[in-house]
Amino acid sequence: MGSTIDFDALRAQTLGAGNDEAVTVNTRALIDKVLARYSGEWTTLRELLQNAADASSKHVKIRFETLPSSRVPVPQIADDSTRLRHVLLHHTMKSMTVENDGDIFGPKDWARLKKIAEGNPDETKIGAFGVGFYSVFSDCEEPFVSSGKDALAFYWRGDALYTKSRRLPNDQISKTTFVLPNRNPDAPVPSLLSLCRFLASSLTFVGLERIELWLDDWKLMTLNKKNAPDLDVRIPKEVNRKTKEGLMHVDNLTKEAAQLDAEWVKAVEWTPRASQASSDTAASSAKSAPSTQSLRSFFTRLAPGTSSTAMTEKLVREEREKQDRISEDLMGLAKATLFVHVNRATIKTSVSHSFSAELERATKKPPPRNTTVSLLSASYDENVATSASSSSPTSGSSKIFDSFVPTNGKGRIFIGFTTNQTTGLNVHISTPSVIPTVERESIDLNNRFVRTWNVELLRIGGIIARIAWSNEMSDIQDKLSRKVEQDGRRAITKDDVDGVLPEALYLHTAYNWSETTPAAEVGSLMEEAFWTCNQKVAIATVSTRGVMPASKVRLEPEDLSFVNGIPFMPKGLANAGLVQKLITYGIITETTVADIKSELESKAISGAQLRQFLGWLLHKIRMNEVDVATAHSLLDVTVANDDEGGQGKIIVLAETKAFLNPSRISADLPIPPYVIPFKFTKDIPKAYLELLFEDLQIVPWLRWIVENVGGRGALTAEQDITINPAFASSVLPVLSKQWEGLSTTSKATIIDLLSSRTTMPTKMGMRKPADAYFPSVKLFDDLPTVTVHAVKDKILTALGVRKTIEIGVVFDRLLDPSKTQSSKSQIPNSSAKWSHVDLIKYLASVRQDIPKSDIERLRSTKICPAETESLSASKERYLVSELYRPDQAIRMLKLPTLHWPGVFQPESSEGRFLTSLGLMPYPSYQDLISIMSKSFIANDLVLRDHALRYFIDHHQTKGYASFDHSTVPLPYLPIQGSDKRVAMPKDVFVNERAAIFGFDILRRDLQVHALKFGVKQDPPVATCAHRLMAKPPQSQREAREKFGYMAGRASELSSNDEQALQDAKIVPITVKAKASDHPNDEKARERINYIQPSACYLGSGDSLYADIFDYVDFGKEANIFLLRVGSKHEPSIGELARRLVNEPSNLFSVLGDARYLELLRKIGDQWSPLKKDKSLVRDMRSSKCLLAYKEIASKKSPNEEMDDEEEESSVKSWDLARAQDIVIIDDVNIYRVFKGSLLVTPTEETLETLYFTLGSAEIGSLLEERHALGNPELDQSPALQLQQHLHERMRLYLHDFKSDSIKHDHNWIRKNMTVQGVRSISVTYSLKGHNLRHKASKRAVLLHEKPVLCITNKFDMLEVSQALAPIVLKRVKPGDIVMLETMLESTLNKLSRRGYVLGIDRYVQN
User: Fold this and answer.
1) Rounded Cα–Cα distance for residues 1255 and 1182 (Å)
2) Which H helix or E strand runs over 1087?
3) What angle do CA 863, 865, 867 make, to 5 degrees?
4) Nearest to residue 595, comparing CAs of 656, 653, 544, 539?
5) What CA–CA distance (Å, rounded) separates 3 from 815?
6) How many CB atoms lie within 10 A of CB 358?
7) Measured by CB atoms within 10 angstroms of the end CB, which terminus of the chain is less buried, N or C?
8) How many whole angstroms separate alpha carbon 1037 and alpha carbon 449?
């Protein structure tokens, strides 16, 4: 195995002794690579202008100096325009000078200027990376800088950049000036228009106020910026000023107007190349055209149907004409003014110390505590002012400021100066504290901490945009409010909104978020903050009702003339980008039901509007555009004024539930107020009306008519159905027409409404239906017969109009009672013309026409006699329902039967009529039970037996089988073995074995009919169990019978019953007393004890543990029950352990030491599951249940010197003790010293493990040693040899041990343990917790605290092994010491012969 290199050590050695060499850099290559990232135009000017702004400069002057052409001479004409044209066409660039009036350079500024990547540490300044100034090397080879009284020149020496500095002479003071000689002498004059546009945008957000651009001695352009005083902007309360991560929050916001004035010579707009082309011939123009074509002209040339040559010539001609007009006067002046406003927010930051440190590491400056974020836009008013102030429509602000006013979401992010990053709005956003990429063209979103900072600043931009939008909308609302107030009106009109619509369209376009470039995430972050910073997501917008939250504005729907107060989105604004986004987000929606509901709540609608509203609503429901619940919510708030016909009636649709169907109820009849008037629904299809309203039914209509009689409600006297025959005659035909189609319930309701009132027109006036007769009833002339026509017989019958004479009249007029009859008698006496049989026959013949009231009167009148014992009629009369049919079997039960001469036919018309009046065909179950119970009490056993036989014979035919026998309240069933008692069905059983528990058994001859009486086979098993627990068996025989019966029903026991039986002491155990208690009577010495089933075991008592556990045997059947409730054949190991804990002395006296040890071994073998029982483990630790022995030495006492060669004889004394009082022999030598005083475990690994777990300590852990060492030997060579020998053999010794049993491995021994020779060693041993001490001389001992192995000259390997084994092994066994001694004394060959081949081979290899 090859050696490994320690690289940490090697690095430390190299740093300590290596050669120092500096890392060099190729400065030119470094600058070139940095500048390669500066791809934007005017990079050098941008950086120098930024430096001027950081130096608090107000005025910057830029001058380009040119070199004359060597080929084209300067014209002699003194005209400035001609000379300037010549310079632009033929001169080349010499140098650029940039001068600012800001703070002059200090020592630190000069020092940073000479260092790359050491930015300005001022967190309020934009510069961060320290490479911006070096952008000058993109066009300049050796720049020169002058500021104050100092100057600095850069020059190259090879690829290394050097500087030279000096003081200005004669105490001159210079403004900060950068002179940049051009690297390329052939470079033409740059595009002036592009440069001026760049300078115009550069003046926007920085502190500069004036920029001048010179070319040689010509001032080409002057830019001036003027700011109006700022105004505080109110930040709405619902705006969350804090960003998502909580690093920043908006402290305040101001708004200021700014004016940018530009004045330039027209040469700025002149394109020399286009002018040059104008002087060429047509042919050369055609040849040069392709090289100057734009992509637009290229694709136009490819367009079908267009001549590419003609298009090219047209474009060239237009550009030539334009440039010719400019070239006529290059020195002419042009002016333009741009008005903008700026929303500037003061931002406070709050970052952690760690975050600040990480950001400073990335940017070389700490994050600012306060910063600003600004939004620049041209509002609609300012845009108009800008257009009006341009001095030249063709070359005004469109030339200089055209790239400054953004469109199509191309606003830019400004970090001092513009970047390539767009904002997604027609608004510029300035964030000077945003950290850009090195080239300052984009925002850095890569570095973790820089990204977090930049993201939070972008979110601030979104929040400010939201506040600015709210401010713009407030301004528009103020304009509208002023307009309304001036005109003396209350509400905003559509014309008012049309007046501000152009401005609203401009703002909705400007603040429409679009995708940003090059990083789309920038726009997403700002837009997210724009929408989420406000608790109300819906922003304000313009509607036909003025400025309102967008969530309340609706898209203009179809014509809804019944509502006219809903704010709609103006059509001229609907296609604006922001509006479309609000529609997409679901903020501006179609007109909703809630909108209509709100409008309906505000005022009542007219009758015409009600028609349109109902038609619209029902159509929406039909098309599934509105659900029924929603439609009802609209009706609940709608109130209509029925102004048609001059009635002025108020209709509350919340109370309107139904519509009138003229095919059911005539429209001429009165209707309830909850029904919509027919004139509003007559043009709406019935299928539509049913979607929302109920079809007015006959029953509720009639109830309203009936309940409002007597002048109640809106009905007049002419519409009173109880007093006006004509009105009743118009209502009853309506009911008759619909009668067949009505439900039973509806018919019953109509009957209930009309039958108790005078609603029936008769020839005797208005009568109740029950007091009126059919026209066909002509028995008497003075009867009130019905006079209404077109009414069916069925409804008249149902209402109770009589087809027969009432029973009272029959009694009065046909039976001709005697005048002497008592007034209390209900019917004529026996002297009447008709008997009860004649009366029944008459009534049976007209049964179908007898009204219910007469039937009820017949049922409650005592009209029939009963049979006597001689079968004659009784004098007493009975209700029909009190009598039974004439039948011999019923007569034997002594029940009252109807007296009926001749043969009674139950199926005849008279029999069926009597049955309908309540004549009983046979006795009920309760009647029979009562007869049987009372007859037993009266000792009328014959009657009881008749009743029993009647019940058995007619059990099925009379329906007795369906009766619930458990509800019988009277005892009536005979009991087996007793004529003196009867029982209820629920208290008697069939199984005679149940009698052992004291239950009654049904008489044996009736047991075959037990099911008919509802008698169960066995009592409830739970009851049996409770009785068993309440009264356990008194003898072995009784136990065998009770347990045997319960065995047959064991499957019925519930878990609760089984648990109760397991815990109950129900098993009888015979216990014999001492012979001395009853010396002459053996039976008297026996007594019964009861134990739980779980405490006894089944068997004959031949078990190993029969002497300590209770064994019983009640027979095979009874034993099955005991097994079910907890008994077992043998005790479990857990039960043995528990008995061992509870009765250790008893077990020891019964089992003896050998069997007791066997029990402990069994517990030790099963200890893994047993130790889960925490209470058992706790009890075993505290109980004297462990068997240990003490060896009593017979030869030497513990205080005498120990001789290893001499064996001692001893006697083992066994005793029970707690685990903590027993020790484990892990050091035989120490044990030999103290063995006569210690209780020790048997030397078996299973028992030692068990005792150790329970708290027994090893002797080695109790041992305390005190060493007395002699002086060190002068010759330590034997000790060193032994140390080397131990280092070698210890690895071999530990080879076969498991890693978890090793305390220290051989590497630890080699590094830490030493061997020392001494002249003498004396050790005093003592045991903790035992008052024992022994002193002995030793030849080897280990000092653990060092560790040092001390040996004498005549050291012994056994003692060496005894000293070393405890330090390398966690637990030492006697064999481990012998093995170590063998390893140390034997040679490798001898060890190999003894079987240590594999370990030796590896040892030799290593």
Assistant:
1) 10
2) strand 1086-1091
3) 160
4) 544
5) 140
6) 19
7) N
8) 93
DSSP state of 338: E
What span, in angstroms and rounded, lies between the C-alpha atoms of 1155 and 1214? 13
Omega before 1347 within 30 of 0, i.e. cis: yes
Burial class for 1078, CB neighbours closer than 10 Å (0-12, 13-18, 19+) = middle
Three-state SS for 454-472 is: HHHHHHHHHHHHHHHHHHH
The string of DSSP letters for 992-1034 reads GGGGGGT-EEB-GGGGGGHHHHT-BSS--HHHHHHHHHHS--S
Residue-wise pLDDT tens digits, 845-870: 778 877 788 888 888 888 889 988 88
Is there a contact between 925 and 963 (Cβ–Cβ < 8 Å)?
yes
Angle, helices 925-937/941-953, rounded to nearest 10 degrees: 160
Cα(433)–Cα(1155) distance, integer angstroms: 91
The reported pLDDT for the residue numbered 1398 is 45
Backbone angles phi, psi at 220, to 5 degrees: -80, -35
Residue that has been written with the tokens 């050796």 in this structure: 142
Instruction: Check: CB of residue 1339 under 8 Å from CB of residue 1354.
Output: yes
Distance CA 13, CA 1226 (A): 50
Alpha helices in 824-968 (DSSP H): 836-845, 852-859, 888-892, 909-916, 925-937, 941-953
Cα angle at 562 between 559 and 565, to 5 degrees?
A: 85
What does the alpha-carbon distance between residue 394 and residue 382 come to, in Å, rounded to a whole number? 20
Report d(CA 799, CA 774) in Å as an integer.
Answer: 11
Nearest by Cα to 982 from 937, 948, 1023, 947: 937
Q: How far apart are CA 345 and CA 433, in angstroms?
A: 13
Closest of 536, 631, 639, 539 to residue 593, by C-alpha: 631
d(CA 162, CA 309): 57
Structure token digits, residue 1337: 């001389």
Bridge partners of 252? Answer: 346
Query: Alpha-carbon distance 479 to 500, whole Å?
Result: 8
The bridge status of strand 1263-1269 relative to strand 1321-1327 is: antiparallel
β-bridge mates for residue 165, sequence order:
152
Task: Give the pairing of strands 210-215 and 59-67.
Answer: parallel
Instruction: Report residue 329's pLDDT band, with 50, 70 and 90 as the boundaries.
Output: confident
pTM for the model: 0.48
- Whether the Cβ atoms of residue 1342 and residue 1367 lie closer than 8 Å to each other: yes
User: CB within 8 A of 558, min separation 6: which ones?
Assistant: none
SS3 content of the chain, % helix, strand, coil (to 5): 45, 20, 35
Q: How far is CA 1029 from the centre of its chain?
A: 54
Please report, for residues 151, 171, 1198, the alpha-carbon distance to residue 107 in angstroms, rounded to integers and kept in the order given.
Answer: 12, 18, 93
With beta carbons less than 8 A apart as the criterion, state whether 6 and 14 touch: no
712-758 pLDDT per residue, tens: 777 888 888 888 888 888 888 888 888 988 899 999 999 998 988 89
Rg (the chain; Cα; Å): 61
Rounded CA gap, 106 and 116, in Å? 17
Identify residue 1094 by its one-letter amino acid code.
S
Per-residue pLDDT tens for 472-510?
889 888 998 988 888 888 888 888 888 888 888 888 888
**pLDDT at residue 283, rounded to an integer:** 35
Q: What sign does the CA torsion over 967, 972, 977, 980 have?
A: positive
Per-residue H/E/C for 946-966:
HHHHHHHHCCCCCCHHHCCHH
**Within 13 Å and on the Cβ side, how many CA atoms surround 783?**
22
